[in-house]
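Human: If only I could read backbone structure tokens as easily as an amino acid sequence. Take your time, and here it is.
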Amino acid sequence: MNYKVPILVLFWDRPSLIARLLNILQEVRPEKIYLASDGPISTSTCNQHLVSKSRELSISLVNWSPSLKTRFLASNLGCRAAVASAINWFFEHEEEGIILEDDVHPVLSFFPYMQELLKRYRHDNRVGSISSHNFHRQPIEGVGSYQFSIYTHCWGWASWRRAWSQYDYHLSTWPAFRDRGLLAGLGDSSFQKYWTRLLDAMAREEIDTWDFAWTYSHWKAGMLSCVPDRCLVENAGFGPDATHTNAEVCPLPAPQPMTFPLRHPQFVRPSPFHDRLTQRFQYCQPSPLERLQRKWRRWRLAT
């Protein structure tokens, strides 16, 4: 099997995780692979060794003779700049493709799912990205294999150059979007309060991540994300070596294979059911009772 969709692989200093991901990719043999790694921390000999080892391992494991391009930075840019610039680089070369970080490990049905939806929505400006998971165990309403959402879930995703061109790295349009009250068209007062606080902090560059700006870019461009009715990936990046999730248990349900043929939604409209659950469980300030319930759910996932 030679997989036609180009894939960008993002990694840094975790050799075991990049090895596991590339072993999965060996099974589908993508014809085009892009490897991108942020630079090492200049003051850490240990980090320099791990970054070097991860890069050497990545080259050795891409052994099925694909078209291979690498972008290995000499200095450390940090999560936000390194990832965003790597995706820029990827879409300079490709019209569409999949983005995988080293700790995101898909089931094999992830690949035909992504390929079919990339083709289906290639020229549909209402759709900006394709996600590989949702954060709740309850089934999304309706009969489709996926639904549409205002949220972008970026643990294994795909998009097009036309959509990524809308990415607002500096959130330069956010103040006008906020001041015109446009968040009110997306969610209730708690939603507006949460996202105003978060995006204000992003605009002040107080948060070193790239993905919230991608979610905002969907909103300001009127784009939606495809969200499957099941989880198609495992995130193995939760733990002490993680950049942003070092004290958590992964909140994702166990991955399941997608069934084919895909059942497509009748309308390109966001799912209120999915978006309410996502906002409630992922993007809100929990009450004391909700914090206790979250701890219990994470304990159940870990046992």
